[in-house]
Amino acid sequence: MNEKINLAERLSQIEPSPTLAVNAKAKALRAKGADVLNFSVGEPDFGTPEWVCAAGKRAIDDGFTRYTPVPGIVELREEIVKNYAAEHGWNYTPDQVQVSCGGKHGLYNMAQALFGPGDEVLVLAPYWVSYPAIIMLAGARPVIVPLSEDKNFDLDPEILKQYVTDRTRGIIINSPSNPTGSVLSLDSLGAIAAMARENNWVVISDDIYDTIYYADGMPSHILDADPGLTDQVMILNGVSKSYAMTGWRIGYALGPAHIIAAMNKIQSQSTSNPSSVAQKAALAAVAGGHDFAAMMTVAFRERLDYLLGEFAAMDGVTCVEPIGAFYVFPNFSAYYGRKAGERRIDGSVAMSEYLLDEALLATVPGAAFGSDAHVRFSFATSMDVLQQGMVRLKKALAAFNPG
Ligand SMILES: *Cc1c(COP(=O)(O)O)cnc(C)c1O
Fold it and tell me: Residue 386: which of 120, 37, 10 has the closest Cα?
């Protein structure tokens, strides 16, 4: 077909989300009858709690089906504020909260409100796939700061400093992290807070996995490291992961009122508001506490322990132990440069393709997260699938020629 209409220049900078793409390829293969085991899933394998669904149904039956206020219904924002006060002692007001069409959309609104051409935003790698794209769509430049597997993907502040310029406007942190499951220590959060103060950065804290946490209590937060930094911190959270509500598309942001107001201006001219029905369901969810997340976390922990045992026993594979979220990020670089049959594996994309073609295992190449040594495996899938998957993985790795 003759493409008469040119696309906007900004499209040339970004790629479609690779995690969603792998998922689509795995589903397509499965639709053709292939017995694909899907380790690429970025969402809990649990259904949305019944009581949350009931609240959504009730909203429909009650005719709660019209536009809502741009930042989201006030009851939901009040409940979010109440939870943050109760759980962390942080005092936000409802006008410091925006509810958006998923957490990803909240980050998008934030970047549109805060960054533009000439601005640089620090992104720690391995990073969530959408951060660089969201920054670029705002016209700004993501600056990738590598974290080291040797330090369990915690931050070395001296390395961070090397990437700071007079154009640096902020940093995005994600702890527990997708894809590594690692957390930032209170010390490194303190170092980030100190640099943010010194340079007037905004710190975007993506806390979407804060309830899926394998250590005691809650993960350390930038506001634990520096409680006085609230006028420079944007919190991003949502119900997608904590309440298995990915399809409902509800996320929320908390931060300084003038930034939230700017985000509301953008939302008012783009999506108007998130779905009224989904907001009522999210209200039931966030009013319902963390028992559901705790239940999922117990199941995830059992699967994680199994996987860590398997990876530890595999030749040439290293794997940092995740402290949260539902992904493991093993390092397969010992296999790079070697051949499996006729196929030479030169990086994570080739490795993932090999695993999909030869072992029918759908994974996400680490390159998508800015870390080519690794491949991401989600364990948001049943123990049975994990066990079958590890049998296939061991067989696939055994097919490599000696390195
Ligand atoms: C899943 C996820 C989000 C938010 O997802 P939504 O479905 O848009 O709410 C945000 N950050 C990270 C790191 C995630 O993995």
Answer: 37
Does the Cβ of 169 fall within 6 Å of ligand 1? no
**Tally of residues, the chain:** 403
Pocket flag, ligand 1, residue 131 (CB < 6 Å): no
Confirm or reject: Cβ of 103 under 6 Å from ligand 1.
yes
50-288: CATH number? 3.40.640.10
What tens digit of pLDDT does each residue of 160-203 get?
Answer: 999 999 999 999 999 999 999 999 999 999 999 999 999 999 99
pLDDT at 323 over 80: yes
User: What is the distance, to the nearest Å, from the Cα of residue 23 to the centroid of all Cα atoms in its chain?
Assistant: 15
Integer Rg of the chain from CA: 21
User: In angstroms, what is the span from residue 209 Cα to ligand 1's centroid?
Assistant: 8
Q: Would you kindly state where each structural domain of the chain is located, as residue ranges?
A: 9-47+292-398, 50-288
Structure tokens at 187: 């010390």
Compute, in angstroms, the gap from residue 396 CA to the centroid of ligand 1: 31
364: Cα within 13 Å, side-chain hemisphere: 30
CATH of 9-47+292-398, one of 3.30.428.10, 1.20.1270.50, 1.10.10.10, 3.90.1150.10: 3.90.1150.10
pLDDT tens digits, one per residue of 255-291: 999 999 999 999 999 999 999 999 999 999 999 999 9
Q: Please tell me if the CB atom of residue 176 comes closer than 6 angstroms to any atom of ligand 1.
A: no
Using the mean position of ligand 1's atoms as its centre, give its distance from the Cα of residue 112 in Å.
17
pLDDT above 70 covers a percentage of the chain that reads 99
End-to-end CA distance of the chain: 46
Q: Is 242 in the pocket of ligand 1 (CB under 6 A)?
A: no
DSSP secondary structure code for residue 265 in this structure: H
Q: How far apart, in whole angstroms, are the C-alpha atoms of residue 18 and residue 31?
A: 20
Q: Which amino acid does the sequence have at 120?
A: E
Residue from 240, 296, 326 whose mutation best tests the ligand 1 pocket (most atoms within 8 A of CB): 240
For the CA of 104, the nearest atom of ligand 1: 8
For ligand 1, whether the C-beta of 104 sits within 6 Å is: yes
